[in-house]
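As promised in the previous annual report, we have extended the structural survey to additional targets. Below is the entry for Nucleoside phosphorylase domain-containing protein.
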Amino acid sequence: MPIPRHPAKHASPAHFSPEDHLDYFRNVGLAPGSLQPAAAIFCYQRTLLRHVVDTEQPSRIPCVTGMLYPLPSTGGSVVLAAEFGIGAPAAAMTMELLVAMGVRRFLNIGTAGGLAPHLTVGDLTICTAAIRDEGVSHHYLADPHAPALPAHQLTEDFAAALHQHGLTPPRGSTWTTDAPFRETRAEIAHYQQEGVLTVEMETAALFAVAHLRQVEIAAGFVISDVLAGEAWNPQFRAAETARGLISLFEAARATLTETPVP
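The corresponding structure token record, generated without further manual editing, is:
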């Protein structure tokens, strides 16, 4: 069964827009009326959120189902988007609302499962493409077989920021899925053969939203669990994972604080 199910999906306009949605929640006091950030960093892990709150002491602003944290170190031009949930639908909806607020540059950072045998817990990766094994991206990109791609220059800028911190992560694709408990051994073996580095739950959807809305996004991950061995090795709370998240955040903040090339 194809997704979307209706053949006219991509030729038909949406019945209401993210701007309409945002206006409603502004009117009921559940979205900011005056906040106009230029860039946003997605944050999924509580450990990273605690670090940012402790070091930046940002204000906490409700935005529909999540929270926005304008970063004082950027003059408020960059916000941390957090507490909106996990998975492609939640992340994509948050991104749509941020685009409606005027955000044009995004960095998606978080944990991912390691598929490549050389990756260990705490290693970082830079995402160059996302395999679309979730549902959201198919409502944004008409070609069901095309991968979802990040912005090239923003990805290069992010890699350069990591390099300035002494980090040179491998680059490669990620497998985005809605169903982590259905990551089968057959799929893992297949994507390993294809050279896919990681598996996670949001990136393909975010890349697809960025493509449709004509905004820029890049992504990077820290390995929090390893799927390359005979047994799954989860290390979500490991110190190496926490350090990797902080490194990604610092590079993301530096990348988005730089003035973009026209």
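The radius of gyration is 18 Å. The CA atoms of residues 13 and 140 lie 12 Å apart. These points will be discussed at the next consortium meeting with the crystallography subgroup.
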